[in-house]
Amino acid sequence: MSLPIILGTGAVDWKGDTNGSGNVALYGPDGKVIYKRAAFTGLIRVPNQRLTAAIASGSLIWSFRYNGGAGVVLRVKSGILSCGFDGIAASTTQEYQIVRISAANPTGGSTIQPVKTIASTIPSIDARFNYAAALTVAGVTIDAEFAVEWGCARQLSAGNQLILPGRESLYGSFLDLLNGEGFAIRLGVTAVIGDSLGGYFELQEYATTD
After folding, report:
1. pTM, whole model, 2 decimals?
2. What pLDDT digit, counting tens, does each position of 57-85 carry?
3. What's the CA gap between 111 and 168, in Å, rounded?
4. Which domain range does residue 4 map to?
């Protein structure tokens, strides 16, 4: 059984792959791809843990750098980030920022790996976090913060959430990363013991040529 796909005034019969699966690429009148299946789909976590030291403002505490090579792009499709506080109450507010990084991998802390949500090859990345001290950023280029920051009041049991949607369109994304590019979470103010952080980002890798 074939599936008719109608684009504009034309029609194309699509029978899928030889095994009957539904891999398809759609192209517009200009020959540019509209949609194709991602080579990788998965998640990278922001560990849900308590900060255990007064880490200085401006420090990176979580980082992700894509090392996928030429001809591919990693799309950060969406994300959910939560923060909380369970320390000694104070009249101050946390501030976490998202920044773009490049040139080198941060070092230190504990490494983390993406988890695939469909059967696919996990791309080459370097991801890590440290909630007890700043990540080392020798040789790392750190751009200005995005128009994205979040935090919560330092009151017992306070919390907040940042939602980064990116599912409205097939190619919609919060951030696109080419080889050697990445992003990180930076402290906008000095951390205190009792601050906490957690969440995840949704990732998809695509070839940039067809």
Report:
1. 0.82
2. 999 999 999 998 888 999 999 999 999 99
3. 31
4. 1-37
